[in-house]
Each structure stands twice: as structure tokens, then as C-alpha cells.
Design a protein that fits this description.
Blueprint (H helix, E strand, L loop, with lengths): L12 H11 L2 H9 L2 H8 L5 H25 L1 H4 L17 H23 L1 H22 L6 H5 L5 H11 L4 H24 L1 H6 L5 H4 L2 H26 L4 H26 L3 H4 L1 H25 L2
Helix pairs in contact: 2-4, 3-9, 3-16, 4-6, 4-7, 4-9, 6-7, 7-9, 9-10, 10-13, 10-16, 13-14, 14-16
């Protein structure tokens, strides 16, 4: 790999530490952990073993951070040109590509070892598979080639739901598959709302996100369809996993809120193509809140029905 000079003399220790933390994309990491730990409570039908939770959180954080760091290395050319990403460590040359690559690979190896030794081999394999899928399938193949990039590539971000379950049970079952599908169907509305906000950025770097190649009204319609599918699948967890009544009630209420916002944004896209009128970030933040509270409900339900 061609290395690039980093102006280390002008970067303080605090800058360098912050840059390495930034390579792990902490906001993405938080979201991934939020779909891991609640499923562990659900799998345990109560409070899971603390040691397993800690090992899973540490290893899961390293795994997600590894994938994010490697993504930053591969995408550094377009990150330099996008408003949303040009303040990252590599575009600012605080960290060199070689150092970021070593950092990402080290995190990946350590996460796999921790999963294998302190959790179980199945969780280690799932974690490694998620990283490989994110880098090889999404980042290196789909992202710059097709509007379906985030639809199929987003599957990598669904693995934490499986890992949370296997960390407790050491086996796969239908309930975590339902959780996987919820995140899978939720990802396009969530990401397309953000991509709509930054569609000019994606267009400038020739990344064919759906909002770049399709009118806003088409994007809005697709968001509505995927939101309906997300809510429907979320409710399927009730009969499949035999939850108490708390979960389906929470899922229904949250689903209504998510659907209302999706339909409202679709309506705005049919009246105008201007971002100021569409306000896609409203749906983006609503989608974050929806998924967060839905998985909190997944964790709480078994505590109420023990």
C-alpha cells in the first residue's frame, strides 16, 4: 500500500487519539451494540451472565471498529471530497493509510480471539463473516457499482443481532433471524434518508446511492415500502418467539410513529425536490429512535414476563 505523509509534528497527542477513535466510527458502533446486548437479554430470558456480556461488548466493539477503520482506508479517496466525511482522520492526514490498516487488522484479529476464547467459536465466526462481508461485498464491490449497495451491503450491520443470541445460547434460532431481518429492512430507509441529505456529495464522487440516480419522490416511496416491511417483520417476533404483551404493544406504537414520519416525508418529496422542503434528517433521526427503542423493548420484555 502506498503510504501518505502525515503531518505528525502539527498533530497533538489528543488529536492522534481522537483520530484513531474516529476511525472506529463510534456512532455506528453504538448502534451495533444496541442491537447486540438487548438480544442477549432476550436469549437469556432475563439477565445474561455478566462476563459473557462484557466479552461480547468488548469483542463486538473491536470487530465493528475494525470494519469501520478498514472502510476508512479503502474509501479515503472519496472521503476527502465529501462534506460529511472530509474531517475524518485519513482525509486530514493525521493518521497514515498504513497505520490505519494495521490498526483495523489488529482490532479484527483481537476481536476474533476474544470471541473465540471468552464467548464461543460460533460468535467468532459470525463476527469475522460480518467484517468480511462489509469489506469485500459492500465496500469493495457494491458501494460504487449499484443503487442496491446499501440494501444488500447493509446485511453486515445485521449480524450483531445474531451474535448477541449465539453469545448466550451458542446456537442459531428463528428469533435472532427475525431481529436480523428487522435491521436488514430498516437499513435502507435509515440510510437513504441520510443519503438524500448528502446526495450532492455522493453524486460528486460517483457513488450511485438511490437518491443520486432517482427522483426524491421515488426514494420516498421506497422508504415507505421498506418501513412497512420493517414494522411487519418486527411484529412477527411476537408469535415466533412467544414474547409477552409488552413487546408487541411497544413495537406497534413505535411502528406507527415510524410509518407516519415515512409517509410524511414521501408526501413532501412529491411536492418538492428541495432538501429544505423534504427535511430528510427528520426521518433519519426518527429511524434511529425507532430501532433503539424497539431493541430496548426486546430487552425489557423477558424481564417483565419471567
Amino acid at each position: 500500500m502506498r503510504d501518505e505523509p502525515a503531518p505528525a509534528a502539527r498533530a497533538t497527542l489528543r488529536d492522534v487519539v481522537a483520530a484513531y477513535v474516529g476511525l472506529t466510527k463510534p456512532r455506528v458502533l453504538e448502534l451495533l451494540l444496541l442491537t447486540t446486548v438487548p438480544v442477549m437479554f432476550f436469549a437469556a430470558r432475563g439477565v445474561p451472565e455478566l462476563g459473557v456480556v462484557l466479552a461480547t461488548v468488548v469483542a463486538g466493539s473491536m470487530s465493528a471498529g475494525s470494519a469501520s477503520a478498514l472502510n476508512c482506508v479503502y474509501d479515503r479517496d472519496i472521503d476527502e471530497q465529501m462534506r460529511r466525511t472530509r474531517r475524518r482522520a485519513l482525509p486530514r492526514h493525521i493518521v497514515t493509510p498504513r497505520a490505519a490498516l494495521v490498526f483495523g487488522l489488529t482490532l479484527g484479529v483481537l476481536s476474533t480471539v476474544i470471541f473465540w476464547v471468552f464467548v464461543n467459536p460460533l460468535s467468532a465466526v459470525l463476527s469475522l463473516s460480518a467484517n468480511a462481508f462489509y469489506m469485500l461485498v459492500y465496500t469493495m464491490w457494491l458501494k460504487r457499482r449499484t443503487t442496491q449497495n446499501i440494501v444488500w451491503g447493509g446485511a453486515a450491520g445485521c449480524f450483531p443481532a445474531l451474535i448477541g443470541w449465539t453469545a448466550v445460547t451458542n446456537e442459531l434460532a428463528w428469533p435472532p433471524v427475525i431481529c436480523f431481518l428487522v435491521v436488514f429492512l430498516w437499513t435502507p430507509p435509515h440510510t437513504w434518508a441520510l443519503a438524500l441529505r448528502y446526495r450532492e456529495d455522493y453524486a460528486n464522487v460517483a457513488v450511485p446511492m438511490l437518491p443520486v440516480v432517482a427522483p426524491a419522490a421515488v426514494v420516498g416511496k421506497q422508504i415507505v415500502l421498506y418501513t412497512w416491511a420493517t414494522v411487519a417483520v418486527s411484529l412477527a417476533l411476537w408469535p415466533v418467539a412467544g414474547t409477552g404483551l409488552f413487546y408487541p404493544v411497544a413495537a406497534a406504537v413505535l411502528g406507527v410513529v415510524f410509518l407516519v414520519e415515512a409517509h410524511k416525508m414521501w408526501g413532501r418529496t412529491r411536492r418538492s425536490d428541495e432538501l429544505s422542503a423534504i427535511n430528510p434528517m427528520r426521518l433519519f433521526h426518527t429511524s434511529n429512535l425507532y430501532l433503539s427503542l424497539l431493541f430496548v423493548a426486546i430487552a425489557i420484555d423477558p424481564l417483565l414476563t419471567r
